[in-house]
Structures are given as structure tokens and as C-alpha cells.
Amino acid sequence: MNEAKDGLINLNSRRENELTLQGFICLSLLAFAVFMFMIISVNKITVQLGGKTFAYYTFASTVKDVLEEVGVTGPFGLSKKPASLAEGETISYFCVSEELAASVQDDMVIQIYRDSIMKSSEDITVASPVRRKWDIFMGADDERVMEPGKPGLMQNTFLSFYRDGKLKWKEKVYSKMIVEPLTRVIASGSYADVSRQVVKYNGRPLGFEATAYALTGSRTAMGAKTRRGIVAVDPRVIPLGTHMFIKGYGYAVAADTGGAIKGRRVDLFFKSKRDAVKWGRRPVDIYILENT
Question: Is the dihedral of CA 93, 97, 103, 104 positive or negative?
Fold first, then answer.
């Protein structure tokens, strides 16, 4: 009886030992599996955000998951075209160096930028343009203001790009003249000052025959002294006082007449006989200037 009882106790003891060993093995296998899972799943990454860099281990599987871990929830990328922004409007977004759906890799570096684009405008003063009108009765060094003119006002529209609060570029995308400037008109006795300004002429040129002359010291039919830019014309064809541009000669004023000048013929004054001989007689195109 006692022997049977001792045998039963020994059997139970062996079973308990076997269960204990099996449990230990299971726990060891589970711990190993967890350890291997952590090794496989955890990744060391570096995140750069707002000028700061920090590294840590993460179980996140995608870049988007990492962004959520660091508190960045978007928006990612532009939601509208910068050109469509309203005046004074700013659009802000995050720019990420990796695709949001990209898998997280060990030693991955993820750069996150806070970007913004602002649309703004600036008003600038536009200087009054200056136009000089040759007055053949004034001295070469004399001038007077005929029309004072007035500055204009232009509005320039810009797109400004900021990254992490710092301006990276600013681009002018549109300009609009709010107030047109008025031209300042100056009467000048200097032919050189007038001839240097840009001459705008429209329409078809008139064909004439031009002869050079160099009679200095005389006065024209309008009472002005002869000098370069003085042209003798047939007043029935070109009225006296007409301003014109002659190709190959330059800016000129019809200020003289001559008995031999009939129809489409003109005489052009040159400072020296040598220049007059060099020009001789030749066909020219004459553009009549308006509003001079």
C-alpha cells in the first residue's frame, strides 16, 4: 500500500517536472521570437525637422507613420497653384524628402521642411519720362520746361517662397500701371540732347531727294541760325516748323526754304563743307513726327 502510494507521488512529480520544462522551453521560444521580431521590425532613423535633428528607434513601417509619430500631420505638398492665390494669401505645407508610402529602412534620414508661399504686392513710383523738344530759337545751352509732367504709380505682384521661416526666393509675376506717368517736356536749344533721345516714328516713309549744304552764319526763313538739324523744304509739301526724322541724317526741323527747292526736295545743313561734299545728293526716307 505504501509502495503504491510512493509510486504515485513519484509519477506526479515527474509529470510536474516535465510540465515545468515544457513551460520553460515555450517561454524561451516566445522570448526568442519576440527578440527576433524586435530585431527585424525596429529601425534606427534620423529625422530633421525645423532645423533640429534627432535619432531614435521606431517600429513604424512607413514614412507617413514616422511623421505621425513626430506630430506632423500635413498638408503635404501644394494644394493649389501659387498663381491662383489671392492678394495677401499664404499657403503653407510640409515638404518631405521621402515618399509618404515608402517603407522605413534602418539608418534612414527623413528631412521635413515647413514651406510656405505668399502672394503680395508693392507699389512703386514711376519716374516721369522726359522728352526734349528742339527749339531752334534757343541757345545751345538753354532750356525751359514746357510741361512739368507727373510721376506714375505701378503695382508689382510677387510670389515669395519661405522654407522653415526663411525667405528663399522672391519672384515678380505681374505688373500693373495704376497711374500712368505724364511726360515732362523740355524745350532745349541743344540739338545733341534732342537727337540722342529715342525717336519713334510710324507710318510709311516719304521719299525725297536730299542735297547737303554748309552755309554758316546765315539765318533761315524762320529767323533761326543755321546749324545741324535745320532742313530747307518746299513749304507747300512740308510746312515750316515740322519735326521729322531723316534716315542717315537724324532728327531735323523744317525751318528754311529756297528758290530751287520744289516738290520732294530738301536741303540738309552740315557743319563743314567736307561733310556736305561727302553727303552730296542722294535719295532719303523722311518720317514726319507727330506731337513734337
Answer: negative
Q: Is the per-residue pLDDT at 11 higher than 60?
A: no
Q: In angstroms, how far is CA 109 from the centroid of its own chain?
A: 35
Asked if 271 and 228 count as a contact pair (C-beta separation under 8 A), the reply is yes
Q: Which amino acid type is present at position 61?
A: S
Residue 13's pLDDT is what?
60
- Delineate the domains of the chain, giving CATH numbers in brackets: 62-197 (2.20.230.10), 201-288 (2.40.40.10)
Dihedral of alpha carbons 162, 166, 170, 176, sign:
positive
pTM tops 0.70, yes or no: no
Query: When comparing pLDDT for 283 and 139, which is higher?
Result: 283
Distance CA 187, CA 144 (A): 5
CB 240, CB 202: distance < 8 Å:
no
Distance CA 112, CA 94 (A): 7
* Residue 200 predicted with pLDDT over 90: no
- What integer best gives the mean pLDDT of the chain? 87
Q: Which of 134, 209, 122 is nearest to 173 (CA)?
A: 122
What number of other Cβ atoms are within 10 A of residue 269's Cβ? 24
* Average pLDDT rounded to a whole number, residues 56-83: 91
48 near 112, Cβ under 8 Å? Answer: yes
Element holding 23 (H helix, E strand) = helix 2-41
> For residues 109 and 124, what is the distance between their CA atoms, to the nearest angstrom?
45
The CA distances from residue 5 to 1, 8, 17, 18, in Å, are: 6, 5, 19, 20
Q: Is pLDDT at 222 greater than 60 in this prediction? A: yes
